[in-house]
Design a protein that fits this description.
Blueprint: H1 3-24, H2 28-48, H3 52-76, H4 81-84, H5 92-110, H6 112-115, H7 132-143, H8 145-166, H9 178-182, H10 206-213
Helix pairs in contact: 1-2, 2-3
Length: 214
């Protein structure tokens, strides 16, 4: 076993272990931190596969931005852990059955019968002049442009649905009325000028004059 294969098995085992810790931790903050470990080990696997751009993007975008946002959201939410895990034992058999079916499907799809060395032999090592960022962009936006656009539309619909499900209208909440802002006119709607006559020190009240001197 070469050193590269040894690193692959180490990072792969770390990824699986971190993913198991994500779904088994009672504390949501600890689960998010284990997810960071899973992303970092996955980035190391991408780098071992000579996809340096994907590995760096995974660390910068997900670990450096998305996971920090997740961590702040989880820390600010008041999550009732007891209520959240109340039905865990009740639905455990159903969850185990669904997990077993998904595992069997994954093995049947990505098993050696479809993704073995006979169907996909090991590629030759890429040279220094190979630009994997350019190759990835050409593959995404030329060969698979329609699946990429379809995935973006699905993500947009998911974002709109999540906002609609979590949006709560309260009578005491303060919000900006965009239609009223557009209809505003200059004059009394925006600015009111009050003309006041200037007074000298002799005409000012005694209290105001004392405050002015101080």
């Amino acid at each position: 076993m070469g050193f590269e294969k040894f690193l692959f098995y180490c990072f792969a085992a770390m990824t699986v272990a971190a993913a198991a810790m994500v779904i088994s931790r009672r504390n949501p903050v600890h689960a998010v931190l284990w997810m960071v470990v899973a992303f970092v080990s996955s980035a190391a696997l991408w780098i071992l596969l000579e996809a340096e751009f994907l590995g760096i993007v995974l660390v910068l975008v997900y670990v450096g931005a998305v996971m920090v946002l997740f961590l702040f959201v989880v820390m600010m939410l008041d999550i009732d852990i007891a209520t959240l895990r109340a039905g865990f034992i009740r639905y455990l058999p159903v969850g185990a059955l669904v997990a077993a079916v998904m595992l069997i499907e994954i093995v049947l799809v990505v098993g050696p019968a479809h993704f073995g060395l006979a169907q996909f032999p090991a590629p030759a090592p890429a040279g220094v002049a190979v630009n994997n960022t350019h190759d990835l962009g050409m593959s995404l936006y030329k060969d698979y442009v329609y699946p990429v656009e379809l995935a973006s539309v699905i993500l947009l619909v998911a974002i709109v649905a999540a906002i609609r499900l979590t949006l709560r209208w309260r009578p005491d909440s303060k919000y900006i009325d965009s239609a009223r802002q557009v209809r505003v006119k200059k004059g009394p709607d925006r600015l009111r000028i009050v003309k006041m006559a200037s007074v000298g020190p002799a005409e000012m009240p005694a209290a105001s004059l004392a405050e002015t001197k101080e």
